[in-house]
Design a protein that fits this description.
Elements lengths: L1 H7 L6 H35 E7 L3 H11 L2 H4 L4 E4 L26 E2 L2 E2 L4 E4 L3 E7 L2 E11 L3 E10 L4 H17 L3 E8 L4 E9 L12 H13 L2 H7 L5 E7 L5 H12 L3 E4 L8 H9 L6 E4 L2 H5 L19 H13 L6 H9 L8 E6 L7 H4 L6 E5 L4 H11 L3 H5 L32 H14 L7 H10 L4 H6 L1 H82 L15 H29 L4 E3 L5 E3 L1 E2 L25 E2 L5
Parallel strand pairs: 9-12, 11-14, 11-15, 12-13, 13-14
Antiparallel strand pairs: 1-8, 2-5, 3-4, 6-7, 7-8, 9-10, 16-17, 18-19
Bound molecules: adenosine-5'-triphosphate.
Length: about 675
């Protein structure tokens, strides 16, 4: 210590200060170690005594528990919140929590500037733990993230208990409550082709069956068939028939196909899984994966089945899937290009396999809708895949009357709060339940007789099977507060509709004719261009061939020339010494050919050049002094036997390759 104090004395630090600092360090360290030890001991204790259950956002129990938790006051009293206006999970029911801001809002349905007020809700933050007392047990509940980067919530519930009975009770209770609250909603799931999974798209209010007006018996038949199917699993199993049922709803647009499916889903308490076959990235594999992940009891909806066929859904790689008569080459090429460009490689066989292949889910009700049944491949619509076919037509008079009664409930039905009414008319059975809150607009309530009378008059004015039910609905919506005027003006409206339809038809025909004309012109132009190109190519080819022929001829003539020279040299008398020096062997031909090329063209050139070369052995060459001399060519490189070439006697003045002057005549 003395040594230490002597060491520190020059620095001005006293021994006492140092000691105090050391003491603080030791005490602090000890305390931190003790804290960590106790935390880890507590965690060990928790791990050994607590039962822990994990719930993932992708599965239903998560929704049940989130819904249950949202009703627990302790969950709402959390001291760390996320404030959100968005739905956290697939169940919009779970976004409201106890203690949310809605308590202060008087009217949920009130509108601000024509928009519904946004609901603001508290949600306990991620990674915070809440303790809730439930049936004599303390539950420790933590909401966490499944993947730190990609999101996806999980729920962890721990409880001190000997067995997991308490957790089972909790999940069952949460499920019951959820189902009770979700009773009036239909959940919609959409196919995500990127990840090959289903995404929750929203929960819609159930649509009463009574609001769908179809020909008598159609709704009842469908409902009974679906119910019968859902409770016949054993019957199917005993007979070895795959437990699936398919319904094909086909017919004109706006006739209630989709609405009926929504309504049936509500009535049967099923969720709807919608897949669009023409969506981007749809392939055989994706579809098979999606179909394999459809839950057992649900409605699988393939909307606008025929639309898939305009996107080259083919049974094999070469066919388009559409009946041959309707397949134009242009359509095929354009559709296949589109399919390739957006990565859609769905084939009809892939679709069929996914519907009833080994991996296809059982227990689901398959509904397919189409506006063009004639475009469907028979394999797709055969019994076993589509067991029940329902045709939807334009509105009949019966439907017109029914829909009018739906829009203008009579005094007596307006006060009925249940969905059952005692009228004998099936279209009046299960009239839509009156809204909980009075509508902003005042609908004059007429007596039942008055409404019946008006409905009959309305139906009489509607032409049979000419206008869609959706169109009638549009007209009634426009006149929802004026039942009498609505009927008075309906004749006028029908005329208007006809005129509009005619106009649209005419415009469409004109547009089509214009497009056709343009297409023809384009085709003609393309053909002309193609012909011109072909002609050009042909000419170029011919020119090339002629050139090649000329070259060949040149070569041949050169060869024959040298041969003939050799033979001439060897047989003729020796030539006297040349008068003038001559250029090399090819000089005469090249000069004459170039001359002819410029003057007479290619053919003349070829002939002339050949002729000139042929004649070049012996040409009358005008000599300066006017005397005509014969032109002789000798090739130096040609070895000539000494005995046979007396003319080749080397002359001292004669160059090696030269034009020799023939002997004077
Ligand atoms: N038979 C009907 N009964 C009641 N409402 C109908 C009926 N038909 C059509 N509608 C109304 O018309 C609108 C369009 O109906 P929906 O979408 O069901 O027709 P769709 O046949 O599926 O048409 P698309 O073939 O174009 O998809 C909806 O708002 C629906 O309320």
């Amino acid at each position: 210590m003395n040594a230490l104090s002597s060491l520190l004395s020059p620095l001005g630090v006293g021994t006492g200060t140092l000691q105090d600092t050391l003491k603080l360090v030791v005490i602090g360290g000890t305390m931190e170690t003790a804290r960590r030890a106790s935390v880890s001991a507590w965690n060990g204790f928790v791990d050994s005594f607590f039962l822990t259950a994990h719930f993932s956002e992708e599965d239903y129990p998560y929704d049940w528990l989130m819904h249950w938790l949202s009703k627990q006051p302790a969950w709402g009293r959390s001291r760390e919140f996320e404030i959100t206006t968005r739905s956290a999970g697939r169940n919009s029911l779970c976004e409201t929590t106890a203690g949310d801001l809605e308590d202060d809002e008087e009217d949920d349905d009130s509108l601000v500037h024509g928009r519904r007020k946004r609901k603001v809700a508290f949600q306990p933050s991620l990674d915070t733990t809440h303790t809730i007392y439930y049936r004599g047990h303390w539950l420790r509940i933590t909401r966490g993230k499944r993947y730190p980067d990609f999101g996806g919530s999980t729920l962890k519930i721990s409880v001190v208990a000997r067995n997991n009975d308490i957790l089972k009770k909790l999940v069952l209770e949460a499920k019951r409550e959820y189902e009770k609250d979700a009773e009036h909603r239909v959940h919609i799931f959409l196919a995500d082709t990127t990840y090959g999974c289903w995404r929750w798209n929203g929960a819609r209010q159930k649509r009463p069956m009574s609001s769908i007006v179809l020909q008598p018996g159609v709704k009842d038949m469908l409902l009974a068939d679906c119910k019968d199917f859902l409770c016949s699993e054993e019957w199917y199993a005993e007979r070895g028939i795959p437990f699936r049922r398919g319904y094909l709803l086909h017919g004109v647009p706006g006739s209630g196909k989709t609405s009926l499916i929504h309504s049936l889903a509500g009535e049967l308490g099923l969720d709807i899984y919608v897949v669009s076959l023409s969506s981007k990235g749809m392939s055989d594999n994706t579809l098979t994966t999606l179909m394999g992940h459809v839950p057992t009891r649900c409605i699988l909806l393939l909307e606008d089945l025929d639309a898939a066929f305009t996107r080259s859904v083919s049974r094999d790689s070469s066919s388009t899937g559409t009946p041959p008569a309707t397949t134009s080459s242009t359509t095929t090429s354009s559709t296949s290009t589109t399919a390739e460009s957006d990565g859609s490689t769905l084939s009809l066989s892939g679709l069929l396999n996914s519907l009833d292949g080994v991996a296809a889910a059982e227990g689901r009700l398959l509904f397919a809708t189409t506006n063009h049944i004639e475009r469907l491949d028979p394999a797709l619509s055969r019994p076993g895949r589509m067991d029940v076919w329902v045709n939807f037509t334009h509105a009949t008079k019966w439907q017109a009357e029914g829909i009018f009664k739906c829009f203008f409930p009579s005094k007596s039905s307006a006060v009925v709060t249940t969905t059952e009414s005692d009228t004998t008319d099936p279209s009046q059975k299960n009239l839509p339940v009156p809204k909980r809150k009075a509508a902003a607009h005042a609908i004059p309530l007429l007596s039942e007789d008055e409404i019946s009378e008006l409905a009959k008059r309305f139906a009489a004015a509607i032409p049979e099977d000419e206008l869609s039910v959706a169109a009638l609905q549009g007209y009634l919506l426009k006149n929802k507060t004026r039942p009498n005027e609505c009927v008075d003006e309906v004749d006028e409206w029908v005329i208007e509709q006809r005129e509009t339809r005619e106009k649209l038809k005419k415009e469409k025909a004109e547009k089509e004719a214009k497009e056709k004309k343009e297409a023809e012109e384009r085709e003609k132009k393309e053909k002309e261009e193609k012909d011109a190109k072909e002609k050009e190519e042909k000419e170029a080819k011919e020119k090339l061939e002629r050139k090649e022929a000329r070259l060949k001829a040149k070569k041949a003539s050169a060869a024959s020339k040298s041969d003939s020279l050799v033979s001439v040299d060897s047989t003729t008398e020796p030539t006297p010494a040349p008068a003038t020096a001559t250029p090399t062997t090819d000089e005469p031909s090249s000069s004459s050919s170039s001359e002819s090329e410029t003057s007479t063209g290619v053919e003349a050139d070829t002939e002339e050049s050949v002729t000139s070369e042929e004649e070049s052995d012996k040409v009358d060459v005008p000599v300066k002094d006017g005397a005509k001399k014969e032109k002789w060519i000798a090739v130096k490189s040609q070895p000539m036997p000494a005995a046979a070439t007396p003319v080749a006697e080397p002359q001292p003045e004669t160059p090696a390759v030269e034009e020799v002057a023939p002997p004077p005549p």
